[in-house]
Each structure stands twice: as C-alpha cells, then as structure tokens.
Amino acid sequence: MSLPSLATLTQLESRYDSSVDNPGRAQALLDDASALVREVAGSDYVDVDNALTGVPQRIISIVCEVTRRAYENPRGLQGETLGDYTWRAGYTGTKGSAAMGVYLTSAEQSAVRRAAGKFGASSVSLTKLMPYVPTSAVDED
Length: 141
Fold this sequence. Notes:
The chain is mainly α. The protein is built from five helices and two strands, in the order αααββαα. Helix content is 40%, strand content 6%.
C-alpha cells in the first residue's frame, strides 16, 4: 500500500496561482517530493488507516515548493545567454553541476527537520570518562 502525498494538487495550484497542465506528472512529482521529505523527517505522517495525520504546514509548503521546482524546470536549467547578455541563477549540486528533478536544498532539509521536531541534539553514553593512563606515565616528571 503506497502512502498518500503530503500535499495535494489543489494545495500546489493554490500556492502558485495557476493550474497544472499535466496533473499526472504533477501528482507523480508530489509523490516523489513526499517520499523525500518523509525520509528526512523520519515520519510517514499517516495513521493506521493510511490517512494523513499531523502534517506540519511547513512540510506541506516545502513539498509544494520542491514539486513546483521540478515541474517547472525538469532539466535543472540555471541560466542562458542571449548575445552579450548572460544570466545564471538557481541551485547547484555538490560538484557545481545543476541539480535536476526532485531534491531538497540544505535549507529545506533543515526546515523539514525543524518541522518534524528533529533539532539535531543527541546524547552519547560513555563507559569511561577518561582514557586509561598508567600511573607510571603520570608520575614521570
């Protein structure tokens, strides 16, 4: 059983004041973005009946933004040159190459973690406070 998207086509369209001309493609991208966000958030946001529950508003907006970016710019284009005029913009991957398809920027990943209540703090249990140091090494001066 597949999980429902964290955002709907209606939510996507209302955020960007336009209707999608290919709803099947847009829905597939919503599904892909939802899967990616769930991976980062560490939560499925569904109840036992596979219905959405407790999805933070920030996560819905991130799923819509990721989907819009992939829908409107599937090849990850970042610039163009027209004669002497050149412009560049957008996100690049770790090696400077253009990011394509569904991806989360580092800022979006952080926002998903915050919305999911994962603040990056953790604890480590130690068995000893200090490494063992032989007394003969301490006594030498």
